[in-house]
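Translate sequence into structure tokens.
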Amino acid sequence: MKDTKLIRTLEAFLEWGGMRREIICLVISGAALIISIFDLLPLPFDAAWAAILLCGIPILLEAFIGLITEFDIRADVLVSIALIASVIIGEDFAAGEVAFIMQLGALLEDVTVAKARAGIERLVHLTPQTARVISGQTETLIPAGEVKVGDVLRVLPGETVPVDGVILSGQTSINQAIMTGESLPVDKEAGDEVKSGTVNQFGSFDMKAERVGEDSSIQRMIRLVQSADAGKAKIVGIADRWATWIVVIALSAAALTWLFTGEIIRAVTILVVFCPCALVLATPTAIMAAIGNATKHGFLVREGDALERLAAVTGIAFDKTGTLTEGTPRVVETQSVMDGLSGEELFALAAAAEKRSEHPLGKAVVNCYQEKTGKTPGDPEQFSMVPGRGVMVQAEGRQILAGNRELLEENGVPVEASLMNRAGTCLEQGCTVIYLALDGKAAGFLALADTLRPESAGMIRKLQDLGVRPVLLTGDHVSAANAIAAKLGIREVYAGCLPEDKLEHIGTYRKENGPVCMIGDGINDAPALKKADVGIAMGGVGSDIAVDAADIALVDDEVKELPHLFALSRRMMFTIKCNLTFSMALNFLAIILAITGILNPVVGALVHNAGSVLVIVNSAILLKWKKRDL
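Result follows.
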């Protein structure tokens, strides 16, 4: 028990002040080492002791805690031995310099692996708080957590659906983006399922609760996000990974040298030059430089080892809406089947009919009309909205119906086969169709679709050139998914995916093909973003929860930069390997010189310090690196 309390006290001491304390200690220690080597101040003690105490003590404590709690031999064990040995023989500057370099490497590593996770809390805030329970003629507002299976609930326009269930009466349009990522709302009526967390946009409806509490869709998604990254591998620093062998080799070499030469200073020099300073700096400096490069190209790297994982990725799974596409519906085709009525005139009548509509499709029609013509549609004289169907208006002296096929049929307007065939072609391409009728006769239709980003096709092609396999995971309909995939040259498509489906596909891909990256923008993408080896969120149009769940955020949504990010990650790994090779070669050369007595502890410290500087310079080249053919 006492040992446990001691360990906790030491850990609390190390955590006190955090990164700010580390920076202050490094600044003071650096100044102290300069004073020591140039003897700038007449002090009664060596100024290097400031570095020994401020930077060395945390290293000693870390080594002690690791050995006591887990018998974990890490790089700081060898550093501690070198520090103590240097102090014992009076080589204070060597001890201070080693402590300073090691703490500098630790600070860089802390910066690169810093995490900022707030996604779970934000997702929890989306959970509906209240529900309207209907009992006879009485409507009672209760906490959503108290809803029971079988309760009849009423959901008003603009409210969030509190639990999963089935609509009993009423017609409406539901925004299901939180679950499916679909850019367009879905019309619902009696008998259709609705899920918790989705938003009722228009008509009120009554529903029967079927899955409540922890079984509801929104709660299941929260659990998915919380657990999705549990199996994601965390990369261990290369110096710590090889620490046991480094310690054994260093101690053996030092002991044998002391045994055969009888000179302890040579043994201490071996321990000093064998300190893995350059080895510790090899990875974090390259990662920091690569992160700086990525930032210039619009990427915010939120996880320090994300680029290291990205270099091994063989496939990338794309969400469709808002990632490969603009995420907003646009009118892509107008078809008139009425004699004397042109497509432009049909478009104008449709814009006038939808002018007062609050439906996203209606707003899209009006916006597209204004962008195309520069005109404002006329005001309807009478306006009536039919939830789940469309609108009925009187405009320009004509009776206009604009909505789905059911709206026309329910108002006695026959829909001819030729019109259905033309609309069917658009539906097969993933479009949403708004049918129009004038004065009781079918007039034509408007087709709306989520349009591709202009840069998407080129980006996919460049990723394929890099050997990265694209996969499309979307909650949208099969027809829409296939149409987009065909335009982009993506062969592997999974449509109609809920969050758990995307999670399953990511897991399957990892098992069968290796590391995979996921890029998305919606709340429904959050579990998959966490499950993937690397998650990339669209930072501009994406939800805050998707960004918080991801390792990397694409701040300005310029997907054309994705190939650069992949190439940069691979170049970073090449730089790291070069740094490691150089640092190890320098260490072994310095050991040979130390064994022969050519190097003393101070010169040895300066030699391996020079190696650390060269590693940093080599890493800094990554700051401006760019692959020429991308």
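Note: The longest strand covers residues 325-336.
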